[in-house]
Design brief:
Blueprint: E1 11-12, H1 13-43, H2 51-66, E2 70-73, E3 77-83, E4 86-91, E5 95-98, E6 103-109, E7 113-116, E8 120-123, E9 129-140, H3 143-148, H4 153-171, H5 187-202, E10 207-219, H6 221-261, H7 268-283
Antiparallel strand pairs: 1-5, 2-5, 3-4, 3-6, 7-9, 8-9, 9-10
Helix pairs in contact: 1-2, 4-5, 6-7
Length: 299
């Protein structure tokens, strides 16, 4: 079981400063008073007692050491306290504070950080090489783990991000024609999968992943041209399918109206010819040129 952070509350720095200043002033006055008494005893030819002066000098030295216990915690900052290599606790309360001067105080930022990963070339689920990169938003949630469970928590987050992005890219196809989850069409879903996987990997470092998003996604340059033509062909087929479906509906509606109103009575051959002409007109990419028959009813 891993150890975790222990938050401790230090002595208010302002209160401790007033106390130390008062003690320093008192000790200084006593030192000058002792020096005066020593001078009077020396003039009177009496034995000089130096022990009070030695005691006051020792007190001044102790006070000087106590002054080294002051420190400042910035907003969204912290101080990790160590006593001769043993973890004592973490101070997260911002402001001016005082603690044991023999404590080692390590600063650790708790601010939210952005990590823009490098663009990686990875094969997707279908084996196509893709270029992919992600943006990670994270912050330290456990100062003990970030300080002592890993050697360098920033480098650890970077390496685990690259590992998670590679695994994500190989788990899903770049694109798909059915309803299967893909990197291109299901960005929010795959981003959430990336966040959860990365959170599991960096838990040991005391890091919390706030957000993870794909920042770059494209086919690798060596296949980008071929895949672009494939997408264009798929788009053309989809457009043609839509046009043909619409044209068929319009032709069916026209024939039904002609039959219902009895405007023109057509046999099967003429219906086939009419359908053929209407489909050409409706599905053609260019404007058609009509041929006017001014002779007979049927050409």
């Amino acid at each position: 079981m891993m150890n975790s952070e222990k938050v401790c509350k230090p002595v208010p720095g302002g209160l401790m400063l007033i106390l130390l200043l008062a003690l320093t002033g008192l000790d200084g006055w006593m030192m000058f008073h002792s020096i005066g008494l020593m001078a009077e005893a020396q003039k009177a030819g009496q034995a000089v007692d130096v022990w009070p002066l030695i005691g006051e000098a020792v007190a001044i030295s102790v006070l000087a050491v106590l002054y080294c216990g002051f420190f400042v915690v910035e907003p969204n900052g912290s101080k990790v306290l160590l006593l001769f290599g043993r973890y004592v606790g973490t101070v997260k309360q911002q402001g001016f504070a005082w603690a044991n001067p023999f404590l080692t105080k390590r600063s650790l930022s708790l601010r939210v950080r952005n990590l823009m990963g490098d663009t990686l070339k990875v094969n997707d689920l279908a084996g196509n090489p893709v270029d992919i990169a992600a943006i990670i938003v994270w912050q330290i949630s456990d100062t003990y783990r970030a300080s002592f469970e890993v050697d360098n928590y920033e480098q650890y987050v970077l390496l685990q991000t690259e590992t998670s992005v590679r695994h994500l890219a190989s788990t899903y196809p770049y694109d798909t024609e059915d309803h299967e989850t893909s990197l291109r069409h299901n960005t929010d879903e795959v981003s959430e999968v990336l966040r959860k996987e990365l959170q599991e990997r960096v838990e040991v470092a005391g890091v919390k992943i706030l957000d993870a998003r794909l920042a770059h996604l494209a086919y690798a340059p060596e296949i980008a041209g071929a895949m672009l033509r494939r997408q264009q062909a798929a788009a053309v087929i989809a457009a043609r399918t839509l046009i043909v479906d619409g044209a068929v509906g319009m032709v069916e509606s026209a024939l039904k109206k002609l039959e219902d109103t009895g405007t023109v009575v057509l046999d099967e051959e003429r219906k086939a010819a009419m359908v053929s002409n209407l489909m050409v007109v409706l599905c053609s990419e260019h404007g058609t040129q009509p041929v006017v028959n001014a002779g007979t009813l049927y050409p």
